């Protein structure tokens, strides 16, 4: 059977997963009476809630007697470790672009990786049936993007389809029949080459592991594309590290292939196909699984280094252990090491004391998703403010710079530019009209300057602005950047908050907690309306006497508290503060640094 391997690339919310759903349905991958969830490829709970793809996932369908393996890639740069690995398994890419928004930052990030590998793209302009769609402008922007990324003549001569993933059609012309996705199936078969590995079927078996996961029944499993040879269950092979060192020798217990949304055991894995193997105990991502006669590992795609670091520690607050069941540092360490094994974009190191761990990754969103997964699993954690990682290049200290793309209403443009280019040390690169009363701003801003900015950005734009960011380059350190300006309100007592006390404190700032909530000494309960921290007593009730009041008591009316999400809390805290994360609560509190730690952090900033 003829074979094609393709990846679908798109920015967050451009309709990638919805299009894959339609491709599966129209190819007959589902039974007529089969119940299939909307966005079936988003299998993770957080993916469904947030509408983003976090994990790279494979699926497979048949069309006209030919098999097409499709990889759904993450759209956010924080999960770029998944993207880089998965692109090494495919021979072509489908670039999906919203006809109204055009190519966005995460499109640029993933497309640059694909073009560098020499993959020829197919461009699909999605949502062309929306009222604000401008397919001609979007197509010109795609061509300009390819040219700027150094695409060669073959890559610039790309085919284009106009589509609506939700409605389930794609056509070569904008005014086409709009019936089904036949044009996309046929274009993939015509434009994407068959895997070149097919000619190496008679060689000894070789496969590069690109994703790692675990199955409760068959244990550790590795997925990748077979580079050469064939393999069947029961064969004995070995795993090589990227430097050629032998890791282990094992017997393959299962050979699985993607058929629709499920993995099915197959008799024989052949060169060019994407398969999953079980039976290993030590082999991991970027290792080579090969015949016993092979001694040279397959070169692995390099991964961009992490740019931020967060400290994960045990929850040592007075309320520790009341919500979660996993509170020991040993259990936290095991979970983080398991995550680092599966996710190559994350690095975990132990602290000298052993009760906290430095976790380095791509961005705040990636860290937020990891912490959210852990709290849902029953963990209690204390999380530090994210810190940017620096590099020494030619003896000069360099820091990561991010390209920020902002779509904002014209009236808020001045406030956004002032905040980015002033205290946050950003450089304005481009500003242009985006239509419908909006302006597109592109700026290069230090990663340090973007920590905690998103909440302020939403305030400045009345919640209407859209901000996207992607790693741009390493640049010389730009000097100190001002942190949070406002101070915080800190509880000076432990107990349960009282309405009367909080009512009397309302002129001091706004609160993060409500009435009748547990508080403790050192817990941050609100934001001060001045720049200094203030210790307050949220437990103080009204003094009662046996003297009748001459007038009536005032009714206590409290302003609704501001509830910070996990990412907002992590971005909000300062260096001497922590976020306390439990399965039921997100709290913030002060931590008192020893002089050595305070000196280290001031030197790092």
UniProtKB/TrEMBL annotation:
Compartments it resides in: Cytoplasm
Classification via Gene3D superfamilies: 3.30.70.240, bipa protein (2.40.50.250), Elongation Factor G (Translational Gtpase), domain 3 (3.30.70.870), P-loop containing nucleotide triphosphate hydrolases (3.40.50.300), Translation factors (2.40.30.10)
GO molecular function (one): GTPase activity
Binding of GTP, residues: 13-18, 126-129
Top EC group: hydrolase
Pfam families registered for this protein in UniProt: BipA_C, EFG_C, GTP_EFTU, GTP_EFTU_D2
Entry EC no(s): 3.6.5.-
GO biological process terms held by the UniProt record: ribosomal large subunit assembly
Domain Tr-type G: 1-196
Entry's Gene Ontology cellular component terms: cytosol; ribonucleoprotein complex
Catalytic activity of the protein: GTP + H2O = GDP + phosphate + H(+)
Record keywords: Cytoplasm, GTP-binding, Hydrolase, Nucleotide-binding, Ribosome biogenesis, RNA-binding, rRNA-binding, tRNA-binding
Family to which the UniProt record says this protein belongs: Belongs to the TRAFAC class translation factor GTPase superfamily. Classic translation factor GTPase family. BipA subfamily.
NCBIfam families with a match to the protein in the record: small_GTP (TIGR00231), TypA_BipA (TIGR01394)
HAMAP family, A to Z: BipA
Task of the protein: A 50S ribosomal subunit assembly protein with GTPase activity, required for 50S subunit assembly at low temperatures, may also play a role in translation. Binds GTP and analogs. Binds the 70S ribosome between the 30S and 50S subunits, in a similar position as ribosome-bound EF-G; it contacts a number of ribosomal proteins, both rRNAs and the A-site tRNA.
Complex and partners: Monomer.
Protein name: Large ribosomal subunit assembly factor BipA
